[in-house]
Amino acid sequence: MSTGTLPTVADAFASYRRDVIPAAATDVQVEECRRAFYAGAWQMYLSLVLQTADLADAEGERYLEALSDELMAFKAAAG
């Protein structure tokens, strides 16, 4: 379900499923993780599209940098 060379949300979840969710996870656990993953992707999409639509370029760049900083801090804390 790829769009050529650009990964889809499904591609990203498949990678997450393979690399993060334990192989012994139940179908219910996998489905709950998938729902949370897609909810996060949807929220990020809304943030990127809707929140930046009316921003000047410099403001949009600062917003994207702030999102990046927040995500990198989470990744560092999560290990």
Textual characterization of the structure:
- The protein contains three helices and no strands.
- The protein has 79 residues and is an all-alpha fold.
- It has a domain at 26-78.
- The chain is elongated and about 45 Å long.
Question: Topology, pairings included?
Answer:
Elements: H1 9-19, H2 27-50, H3 57-78
Summarize the structure.
With 79 residues, this protein is mainly α. The protein has helices at 9-19, 27-50, 57-78.
Termini distance?
Answer: 30 Å
Weakly predicted, low-confidence segments:
none
- SSE succession: HHH
Helix/strand/pairing class, anyone? mainly alpha
Number of beta-strand segments: 0
Descriptive terms for the model:
mainly alpha, about 80 residues, 3 helices
